[in-house]
Amino acid sequence: MPRYDANRIEPKWQAFWDQNATFQLPDEIPEGEKKYVLDMFPYPSGDGLHVGHPEGYTATDIVCRHARMKGQNVLHTMGWDSFGLPAEQHAIKTGTHPRVTTNKNIDNFRRQLKSLGFSYDWSREFATTDPDYYRWTQWIFLQLFDTWYDPEHEWTGPDSKQRIGKGRPIAELPIPNDVQSEGESAVRKYQDAHRLAYQHEAPVNWCPALGTVLANEEVTAEGRSERGDHPVERRQLRQWMLRITAYAERLSEELEDLDWPDSVKALQRNWIGKSLGAEVDFYIGSQTEDGFTAWKQQREQTGFPKSPDTDVLRVYTTRPDTLYGATYMVLAPEHPAVDRLTSKDQQTAVEEYRRMAGLKSDLDRTDLAKEKTGVFTGSYATNPVNGQQIPIWIADYVLVSYGTGAIMAVPAHDERDFEFAKAFDLPILQVVASTSDTDSTIADDKQLLDTLTMNEAAEGSVHVPGLELDEAFTETGYAINSGTYDGMATEDFKPKIAADLQEKGLGKEAVNYRLRDWLFSRQRYWGEPFPIWHELDADGTPTGMVRAVEDAELPVVLPEMEDFQPTGTPDPLLSKAPEEWLYQTADDGVKLKRETNSMPQWAGSCWYYLRFADPKNSERFIDPAKENYWLPVDLYIGGAEHAVLHLLYSRFWHKVLFDRGEVTTPEPFQKLVNQGMILGAPELSGFQDTDGNWVSSKKVRENTNEELDATHVIADTGEPATAVKLEAEQVEKKGENFVLADDPKIVVDSRAYKMSKSRGNVINPDDIVSQYGADSLRLYEMFMGPLEQNKPWSMSGVDGVYRFLGRAWRMIVDERADEVKLNASVQDIPPNEDQERILHKTIQAVGEDIERLSFNTAISRMMEFTNAVTAMDQRPRAILEPFVLLLAPFAPHLAEELWELFGHETSLAYEPWPEFDESKIREDTVEVPVQINGKVKAKIQVPNGADKTTLETTATQDETVQSFLDGKQIIKIIVVPGRLVNFVVKG
């Protein structure tokens, strides 16, 4: 019987699309309008796809199929973000080369995606692990290595916008005369210090379990690895860094022009963390009155220097209005000035404290809840606004990577400073009050504070009476104890004091960012090798000088290795590579050793969207003409979890390439949409064992042991499953959870959770395709709700859309025949007015819904059409063929089969999208609701376009309306033409 059989139809059309290269673009640039639609680069894990993955892929496929039918040239591709930890962790456990594991996973992912009928141009497929691809990843790294950022350069980009700040070739970096006079080595070191890709000895996040360092973004708030949840510790290591902070302003400001979710923009802006404040120099030179006076006089003449000299500690503060309240200073333990500021009697304590601080993560150090620790250095600084000498401490709550790594501590107005001052009995001076009335008691205490020696205060031997606060006052207000600024409102005081400091050469207004430079080194094997040589001296010791691998020698291919066990130390795995790969002698006779760190997984995914436009080019990373035609990406769909990692990194790389003239657009992705998660079905998420571990529903059975305090047990252990999902009538609500109606001691968990192996709630799409077909899976995932929302999986929902596709099939196909043929009710007759109206209304609604990415409502419209037409005795072919074209982006296999059945010999993939006729949509009459005091009580039929008088008269004469008005006094009649009539009555 010719019933709807997805298992017959779908493989047939997938083979057809492959054999005919239906979705393959020509290599040359096409004519006409383009549409570049992209899915976020997937990592091919060994677990394969679960049903959450195809959600975004289905959305992009619908958009692409619709765009082709609208006559646009569509770039829709798929590839693999295939470097990374999982394959290497598998290699450590099994000895299997990561390449073998990765290729196997890719093959499985490709098979699964093809089984879902996505219209990718598979001729453009590549993986980040392909040497032909990572050759150009290495080349882009060398562009970063060859670039410095000129923050003052004014220029006009190819987008015709004026900008301040540009990445420029390192050859254009001005070299100071004193550096040039020291020779070539000094010049190279100066250049290296300004490159966007540079080496830095820094405290990093070292994960012993993973055998690699991690970027701050890859460490959780608990100080553990995001992947694997392993402990992370701090180590001082030489690492490659990327100077993403140079682009902080542009990364923040240029978000404005993007069609992105506000939530993602906010996440990026918060991560960049732009703040406006002031840089101020505290004098640490000769601690005499004459020394400080002479320094101030010199500064008035020379102005505020671009870089601090050795006689000062430069701080960044967002509250320059609190300068008069600075009673001590704090340096980060790693601050370079700590060594020279530590007195002999404090040296041992300072060294031990620095050692302990180095073991903590940045997140742990800045935890507001933790107890404050620190050590006095034995030295003092002079506050530039009042000449007070204040003690200099080191404390781990200050990070060397934020601001200048030094702060002025104002305990009366900062929570962390307040807690520190309380812990070490340091002075607390209030300089901001909630009102403009100055407290004379506080002023008197300020005079007392002036007479104190800061040494006594630092030692905690003196208390300042009358200045005790229960907590820091962190709000704005009015200045007190601030000299001539007393009484000034905070918002006026901040710019005023910044300007006064700049006039005297003591400070200046400044912008700071929370964003840190990107830690770009990993100690793994399975990553892109750096295209960098280290120069060695005669006895093989690194000189500290590096040189780039020549372009002609790219790619630097990973060496063949069999031992993937971590070294047990921060030494990279590639340090165990064969010597012929590690070492070389340059043409100038210098001995060279390769960089043995590898790049992070993010490297390859930073620019893959560019390569899809020109994947086979062996001469350039992208042809300029193709870049100019295809870029930027018009629609990018993926998970919100990439908001401050992949998306920020990609924007950074793209802007560097833009500055260097390699691309013509300042941003890579014009429109971004984050699809919501598909959650595991509640019935698959509701079982936990006695230890709280999640248990697959497949392992749970009914309890037959009366002694077990649960209704279900784990089949292989007999242990009780304490959380149970039952039907609604079997449970009652109690607080946040449900309980069994007949046994309230048993908790019922009816929530849906994110799919994960640990919870046993993962649904394999292969199983759904086998049972219901790919079209049903695609259609259900789009019908579940708005694309951006999280939705729980439901097998009954899959069954529902499967039945709809069966109705669409039977609407056209005669299931009672012995062969596949058209239903006898399908006739070549002109449609009547009602039939035309429902067709054109459906065309309009489905087309508009696809443009809005409102796929669930589009499917509802097609369901309404199917229900209406199925009820017709005669079904004009003229309305059925356009419907099949509307269905095609959603259920392409079924649509192709029906299109062929109508006698068409070519694929419908490029058939013109049906156009709706406005005149055929217009109704002669419309239904208008009638309200009584705002509540709908009746509906009336009136001519389309009826005026207010006609509406009011018709409503008043309606029998149902009259029954509600009987005995009532009409106060007012509100008429909105075409929308409603509302009688306001009383009585």
Q: What's the arrangement of secondary structure elements?
A:
Elements: H1 6-19, E1 34-39, H2 54-69, E2 73-76, H3 85-94, H4 98-115, H5 131-145, E3 147-156, E4 162-169, H6 177-180, H7 184-192, E5 197-207, E6 212-214, E7 233-242, H8 248-253, H9 262-272, E8 275-283, H10 289-302, E9 312-317, E10 328-331, H11 338-341, H12 347-357, H13 362-365, E11 375-382, E12 389-394, E13 406-409, H14 415-424, E14 432-433, H15 440-451, H16 454-458, E15 478-479, H17 490-503, E16 507-512, E17 518-519, E18 532-536, E19 542-548, H18 579-582, E20 583-585, E21 591-594, H19 602-605, H20 608-611, H21 624-630, E22 635-638, H22 646-659, E23 672-674, E24 678-679, H23 682-685, E25 700-702, E26 712-714, E27 720-721, E28 731-734, E29 737-740, E30 743-748, H24 765-772, H25 774-783, E31 791-792, H26 795-812, E32 826-827, H27 833-851, H28 855-870, E33 875-876, H29 877-887, H30 892-901, H31 918-921, E34 925-932, E35 935-943, H32 948-957, H33 959-965, E36 969-976, E37 980-986
Parallel strand pairs: 1-2, 1-22, 10-12, 22-23, 24-31, 32-33, 34-37
Antiparallel strand pairs: 3-4, 5-6, 5-7, 7-17, 8-9, 8-16, 10-13, 11-12, 14-15, 18-19, 18-21, 20-21, 25-26, 26-27, 28-29, 29-30, 34-35, 36-37
Helix pairs in contact: 1-30, 3-4, 24-25, 25-26, 26-28, 27-28, 27-29, 29-30
